[in-house]
UniProtKB/TrEMBL annotation:
Gene3D superfamilies tied to this protein: DNA methylase specificity domains (3.90.220.20)
Lineage top rank: taxon: Bacteria
InterPro entries cross-referenced by the UniProt entry: Restrct_endonuc_typeI_TRD_sf
Record's keyword terms, sorted: DNA-binding, Restriction system
One GO BP annotation of this record: DNA restriction-modification system
Full protein name: Uncharacterized protein
Protein species of origin: Prevotella multiformis DSM 16608
Lineage, broadest ranks: Bacteria, Pseudomonadati, Bacteroidota, Bacteroidia, Bacteroidales
GO MF term set: DNA binding
Length: 132
């Protein structure tokens, strides 16, 4: 999150709306018109309540995997519309903080070549409970 990333046009990345404040281009404007039921200022305000590591935890959870598999219908590709259609559960700041903390531990362990299965299982449990 403190690093700048470069990637080709064949790659996708996720950025919170609040982090796009002040960035204006046709792609962003057309995406808002096409896919959002909220205005851009509303999207920026809503995203200020979301921890990016919480989203990472949700998107890498077993529940999200099941939901994405259902949407894809056997196709192994994941397209932007799959992510757009994935329901993200509303979590309290405390729940988001716990998932974000576990995600940090998982990333540190993976970077260090250690097993992170225990932490991933905990993330899966918390996220699954949020979908109920």
């Amino acid at each position: 999150m403190d690093t700048h990333f470069l990637h080709s046009d064949s790659m996708f990345s996720a950025v919170l709306w609040k982090d796009l404040k002040g960035v204006n281009n046709k792609s962003i404007s057309s995406s808002i018109k096409k896919f959002c039921k909220y205005t851009r200022p509303e999207m920026e305000a809503l995203s200020s309540e979301v921890d990016l590591l919480y989203l990472l935890g949700v998107l890498n959870s077993s529940m999200a995997g099941k939901l994405l598999a259902d949407q894809r219908g056997g196709d192994y590709h994941i397209y932007p519309e799959h992510i757009r259609n994935l329901p993200i559960p509303i979590a309290t700041s405390k729940q988001q903080e716990e998932i974000a903390r576990l995600v940090r531990v998982i990333m540190e362990k993976i970077h260090g070549g250690q097993d992170s299965e225990t932490e991933q299982q905990k993330v899966n449990q918390i996220v699954s409970a949020l979908y109920i």
